Amino acid sequence: MTQAGEFAANLTLTFINSSQTGIDIVHAEQLEISGFLEKNPPFDELSQEALKELAQQVEVAYYRAGSNILNFAEPLQNLYVIRRGAVETYRRSGELYNRLSDGDVFGQMGLLMNQRVRFPVKAIEDTLVYCIPFEQFRDYCDRYETFADFFESESESSSVLRKAVSAQHDNNDLTTVQVKGLMLREPIMIPNRASIREAAEVMTANHISSLLVVNQDQSAGNSAELVGIITDRDLRERVLARGIDPATSVDRVMSNQIITLDDNAYVFEATLLMLRHNIHHLPIVQRQKPVGVLALSDLMRHESKSSILLVRSIFKMSSIEELKIHAGQLPAVFVRMVKEDANSHMIGSAMAVIGRSFKQRLLELAEEQFGPPPVDYCFLALGSMARDEQLIYTDQDNAMVLDDNYREADHGAYFSQVAKFVSDGLAACGYAYCDGEVMATNPKWRMTLSGWKQHFSNWIDEASPQALLNSNIFFDLDGVWGRTGWATDLRRFITHKSKKNRKFLASMARNALNRTPPLGFFKEFVLEKDGQHKDSMNLKRRGTAPLTDIIRVHALAVGSVAVNSFERLEDVIAADLLPEGKGTDMSDALEYISIVRIRHQAKQIEAGEVVDNNVRPRHLTSFDRRNLKEAFQVVSSAQNFLKYRYNSNIPMK
Amino acid sequence: MKARNQDWPAYFDQLAIKSQDHRLHRYYTGGLVSGDTAIVNTPMVAMDFETTGMNADTDEIVSIGLVPFSLHHIFCRESAHWLVKPKQALTEGSVVIHGITHSDINAAPDLEAILEALLTAIAGRIPVVHYRHIEREFLAQALLDRLGEPITFPVIDTMAIEYNVLRCRQGLVDRLLKRSPGGLRLGDCRERYGLPNYHAHHAPTDALATAELLQAQIAYHFSENTPLSELWL
Question: From the candidates A7, A39, A63, which should be mutated to test the interface with B, based on the most B CB atoms within 10 A?
Answer without folding.
Answer: A7
